Write the structure tokens for this entry.
Amino acid sequence: MSAEAQQVFEEYVVAGAMLRDAEAVAALFAEDGVLEWPLQRVRFAGRDEIRAALSEFYALQPLLEADPERSRYELHASADPDTFFVEIDTAYPGSDEMTSMAQIFRVRDGAIVRLRDYFGGQPQ
């Protein structure tokens, strides 16, 4: 995996999971980038659509603080240095439950051109 791709992933985590900043997340995408949530059967194309969808999503979903000691992620390179996979397990304080997800990133010229985010529900 290229260093550039890993940097984009780290910026994505900060902008999305930590700051929940739809503008900052959309800025990480290529102008014609695509964000897909296959388990929800939705697809957002272009920065404007991604920004609008994430703004709405962040407003409707409660922010759950993660337990950094028990949460983890692992990056997996592919044969294409600009495509990589991420496994994420998020633990929450006061809960034995974990939320697991997988993401597939394709990065070109420092921007996300396609992100497939496979996530489900959050712990009760």
The mean pLDDT is 89. The first helix runs from residue 3 to 18. The helical segments are 3-18, 22-27, 47-60. The two ends are 35 Å apart (CA to CA).
